[in-house]
Design brief:
The complex is a heterodimer of chains A (about 325) and B (about 260). Chain A has 2 domains: about 5-195, Rossmann fold (3-Layer(aba) Sandwich); about 205-334, 3-Layer(aba) Sandwich (Rossmann fold), CATH 3.40.50.1220. Chain A has about 325 residues and is α/β, with parallel strands linked by helices. Chain A starts with 9 loop residues before the first strand and ends with a helix. Helix content of chain A is about 25%, strand content about 25%. By secondary structure, chain B is α/β, with parallel strands linked by helices. Chain B has a single domain (about 5-230), classed as HUPs (Rossmann fold, 3-Layer(aba) Sandwich). Chain B has a 9-stranded mixed beta sheet with strand order 9-8-7-10-6-1-4-5-11, with helices on both faces. Chain B has a two-stranded antiparallel sheet with strand order 2-3. In chain B, a hairpin with a 3-residue loop joins strand 8 and strand 9. In chain B, helix 2 (about 65-75) crosses helix 5 (about 190-200). The longest helix of chain B has 17 residues, at about 35-50. Classes of the chains: A alpha/beta (about 325), B alpha/beta (about 260). Chains A and B meet through helix 3, helix 4, strand 7, strand 9 and strand 10 of A and helix 3, helix 4, strand 7, strand 9 and strand 12 of B.
């Protein structure tokens, strides 16, 4: 195909939640800037939402050369249908070569709807992005089977090359108040905003204040925690480390902790800087959800537990003795 | 209420193998199972059918061995099963897969809801559900943890989010992807197992569902695998022992959490 060489520019979908830009957007801008500089093109950011206009400058400060804004009460929440219509229309008008989304659940859902509509490629949950200097193709690296394999995907003949990027995988772009860029606020007609899905209520659960996919530190408990009340010691340790509490499937199935905390095959895949596995034996279904963590600590009574095979450091012992000691020590010293 | 459930047969996590030449997952001869999230999709479809009437059709795209996944679906209570299988589908990415499944669903035609699991174990993309919804031009709700109500062509569902949950209303027909929290899947009954043995599993080829050749399989895919590497195994860890174990661990952790 010859026309794909005419596509120019790296775009970032500026995810926001009730008008607050999510940190992963700044991570994408950091990466987009790097890719755009290699390609010698501009970075543009899409900002869709309600009462978001005044956030556009911050996106410029974080590396965008241009920000397209659609500010309308009807799209306060991310609704796949109108968002897909608006983004697809912008793509058809401006022909970017790369479009990055955060690999959060809703942005992934949106990205897929857009990709099938445009009949272009989409790679999920990338942790590495680079440009192949030979053909300007985007090299999109993603873990498969919970990090058992690393796969690099390309989209040779379709533009834009779309990818969702895992939160925390890229460095946040620093804010530079001196940077200049253009902000274009778009007025769209009625037909763009239709949605067959309506948001009735948005509920934030206190328990998930730090959600485990965003957390730098996760203190996780398994079957050996032996009861819901015992998760308190994990919460205390998580609190001093400014982390979140995770759990194995066994603990969730026992109703000791809500499903939103489950790490592993049927829960969430996480890759924090530090993962502390407490009384988790380390079944393969759990390991695929956390083995990409930078550092893994295991505390378990059973020295033959498979969790020790992936752990950087471990203590064979009783979590009910060791965890409170750790909490106390950190309260004293941090 | 006529429901279509899209399921996928995936290799058991514990024994994945990669073809050294094509760099794709080897599926032949590897022990397989129904993708775990799809079990919740099947269960939710069956519960709705039992409450509201109608039928549940399970479909899967893949090689001939996918038939066993469909028989398992029948043993659980699905009424019909269709295997979408053709050499032309080999090498499909999520775009080509979404297209091919959508073509099959267009042929089934009469449906109120499509259920999918949140994502598959092997691909891990969560693309195909939303992709099908996009191609069929129906609304989607992902990560559904509860269906609160269905009436007068509207469904109210709770969607699990990174922050808590959203309550959403959607017009039927729609596509829902489900998470583990939504139900506890049943085990097959003896009667179900008997039924599954003798049940008819239809096989639809590319020509049966009007799939254009350049839209399916590797040809119809917009992405390709460029490289697959196995990351180095994690280095042998250090186990702290004795009375100073906690002190040593604290020493290591201090450097990490600063």
């Amino acid at each position: 195909m010859s026309e794909i060489t005419e596509n120019k520019g790296v775009w970032v979908f500026g995810e926001n939640r009730r008008g607050v830009i999510t940190p992963v957007t700044y991570e994408l801008l950091g990466k987009a800037r790097e890719l755009a500089d290699k390609l010698g093109v501009e970075v543009s950011c899409l900002l869709l939402g309600f009462k978001v206009k005044d956030k556009a400058q911050e996106l410029v400060h974080r590396g965008a050369d241009k920000v397209y804004v659609v500010d309308d009460a009807r799209i306060e929440h991310l609704l796949e249908e109108p968002y897909a219509r608006i983004v697809s229309d912008l793509i058809k008008k401006h022909h970017p070569e790369i479009l990055l989304f955060p690999a959060t659940s809703l942005s992934r859902s949106l990205a897929s709807r857009i990709a099938v509509g445009l009949r272009v490629g989409l790679t999920a949950d990338c942790i590495g992005l680079d440009i192949n200097p030979e053909d300007r193709c985007l090299l999109q690296t993603k873990p498969a089977f919970g990090g058992t394999l690393m796969t690099t995907i390309i989209s040779r003949n379709h533009r834009p090359q779309m990818a969702t990027v895992r939160p925390k995988a890229m460095k946040e772009a620093p804010s530079n108040g001196e940077r200049k860029g253009a902000v274009e606020v778009l007025e769209l007609n009625e037909s763009f905003f239709a949605s067959r899905v309506k948001v009735l209520e948005v509920v934030d659960e206190a328990a998930s204040k730090i959600n485990i996919t965003d957390a730098n530190v996760i203190v996780s408990g398994g079957r050996g925690m032996a009861g819901a009340e015992n998760f308190k010691i994990l919460e205390e340790l998580a609190k001093v480390l400014n982390g979140a509490v995770g759990a194995s499937r066994a603990a969730v199935d026992e109703n000791w902790i809500p499903y939103s905390h489950q790490v592993g095959q049927t829960g969430k895949t996480v890759c924090p800087k530090l993962y502390i596995a407490c009384a988790i034996s380390g079944q393969i279904q759990h390991l695929v959800g956390m083995q990409s963590s930078d550092t893994i600590i295991a505390i378990n009574k059973d020295s033959s537990a498979p969790i020790f095979k992936v752990a950087n450091y471990g203590i064979v012992g009783d979590v009910f003795e060791i965890v409170p000691q750790l909490t106390k020590r950190f309260q004293e010293t941090l | 209420m006529n429901i279509i459930v899209c399921i996928k047969q995936v290799p058991d996590t514990a024994e994945i193998k990669i073809d050294p030449v094509t760099k794709r997952l080897l599926r032949e001869g590897v022990k397989s199972m129904i993708n775990p999230f799809d079990m919740y999709a099947i269960e939710e479809a069956l519960r709705l059918k039992e409450k509201l009437g109608g039928k549940v059709t399970a479909i899967t795209m893949g090689p001939s061995q996918g038939e066993s996944a469909l028989r398992e679906a029948i043993s659980l209570g699905c009424d019909e099963a269709i295997l979408i299988s053709d050499p032309a589908f080999i090498g499909s990415d999520t775009l080509a897969t979404s297209y091919t499944l959508s073509q099959a669903i267009e042929k089934i035609k009469d449906y109120d809801m499509i259920f999918c699991g949140k994502q598959t174990l092997d691909g891990d993309t969560a693309h195909v559900g939303p992709g099908i919804a996009g191609i069929l031009d129906i609304p989607q709700i992902i990560n559904v943890r509860k269906i609160q109500d269905i009436k007068e062509g509207l469904l109210i569902a709770e969607r699990m989010t990174e922050y808590g949950y959203d309550v959403l209303e959607v017009k039927l027909p729609c596509l829902l992807t489900v998470v583990k929290d939504i139900n506890v899947p049943r085990l097959p009954s003896l009667k179900g197992k008997m039924k599954a043995k003798s049940a008819q599993v239809s096989v639809w080829k590319a020509s049966d569902i009007g799939v254009q050749e350049d839209c399916a399989g590797a040809k119809g895919s917009a992405t390709e695998v460029w490289k697959v590497v196995t990351p180095p195994a994690r280095p042998q860890g250090k186990i702290f022992e004795g009375e100073t174990a906690v002190d040593q661990l604290v020493g290591v952790l201090k450097g990490l959490v600063k």
